[in-house]
Amino acid sequence: MSDPRASAGPRMPANEGMPAQREKACRVIVIANQKGGVGKTTTAINLGTALAAVGEEVLLVDLDPQGNASTGLGIPVAERGVSTYDVLTEAVPLARAIVPTAIPKLSVVPSTVDLSGAELEIAALPRRSYRLRDALDGFLAEDRRREKAERRGLTYVLIDCPPSLNLLTINAMAAGDAVLVPLQCEFFALEGLSQLLRTVELVRGTLNPALEIQGVVLTMFDKRNKLSDLVAADVRAFLGEKVYRTVIPRNVRVSEAPSYGKPALLYDHRCAGSEAYIRLASEMIQRERAVRAA
After folding, report:
1. Between β-strands 27-31 and 212-221, what pairing exists: parallel, antiparallel or unpaired?
2. In tens digits, what is the pLDDT along the chain, a chain of 294 residues?
3. Residues 175-232: pLDDT tens digits?
4. Tens digit of each residue's pLDDT (9 = 90 or more) over 3-32
5. Cα torsion through 137, 143, 147, 151, rounded to 10
6. Rounded to whole angstroms, how far apart are CA atoms 250 and 215?
7. Partners of residue 59 on adjacent β-strands
């Protein structure tokens, strides 16, 4: 396999004013891969649930017009009165769009199909690449003020991106501190990795100098299939310690859970997939503690 970092990515929007550095109290993690079907939304839902289960305050921002993360967390379309579409296109305060979930300490900013047209609408708006960043920064500033008076504030914001490198994904990367890449353990899944890594580099150079690759998590791992081992070895050879030790196995219970509007950790917390996401959350927390201590 050729080095995935060598390929070119999309053109970035013109610089619209570099954002200010954030405090480290809350980390914004962008979960992105422009290839569909790699376990991106499943990772967002179950990682968010696992982080909340160990006491982290988590907000999941659904930035995919399909709204699968919202559905997978049990939020009916009828309860998505204010969504990410409103936040991006009309600058509605993020706080108005937040919906609690059945999981304590985990909330979601839901998505609706209206978001599919948002890219064209925000293209002509001021600070088009920073629409989500501006909304998040305003909310996090208010959250820090509430934290001092009332409670612990948010510790993680997870952004579930659409399966494409469009202006929505650019907004997510401009808003994020780091990118987590779910990568399916199949050969064709590797083809888009180069473009995604190149996009992260371009965003870092033009829109968000603090953006980094948080890690790559191997998903849909089938230990009976030698290709899974080959893909895993290939990715680890190129990206080294950026690849998580935890791998997410193919698991029927994880696939079934969204149809019940539940994360796998609620649907069957003893299945292999749920246990893997718990280990992934633990590994992420260890990595993030090192970042915060630096």
Report:
1. unpaired
2. 445 444 444 555 555 666 666 666 799 999 999 888 888 999 999 999 999 999 999 999 999 999 999 999 999 999 999 999 999 999 899 999 999 999 999 999 999 999 999 989 999 999 999 999 999 999 998 877 765 555 568 999 999 999 988 999 999 999 999 999 999 887 776 777 888 899 999 999 999 999 999 999 999 887 777 778 888 888 888 889 999 999 999 889 999 998 899 999 999 999 999 999 999 999 999 998 888 777
3. 999 999 999 887 776 777 888 899 999 999 999 999 999 999 999 887 777 778 888 8
4. 544 444 455 555 566 666 666 679 999 999
5. -140
6. 20
7. 107, 157
Q: In Å, how far from its chain's centre is CA 291? A: 18
Q: And the tokens for 18?
A: 């570099």
**Among candidates 61, 83, 76, 53, which has minimal Cα distance to 171?**
61
Amino acid at 273: G
Residues facing 30 on adjacent strands: 159, 179
CATH for 22-293? 3.40.50.300
Angle, CA 67 vertex, CA 61 and CA 71 arms, to 5°: 95
Query: How crowded is residue 21: how many other Cβ atoms within 10 Å of its Cβ?
Result: 9
**H-helix or E-strand containing 184?**
strand 178-184
How many whole angstroms separate alpha carbon 142 and alpha carbon 148? 10
Q: Which helix (H) or strand (E) holds 142?
A: helix 131-149
* Strand pairing class (106-109; 99-100): antiparallel
Side chain identity, residue 291: V
d(CA 221, CA 223): 6
Which positions ≥6 away from 5 have C-beta within 8 Å? 194, 197, 198, 238
Token pair 């997870």 in the structure block, residue? 158
**CA distances from residue 165 to 35, 62, 175 in whole angstroms, order as listed:** 9, 15, 15
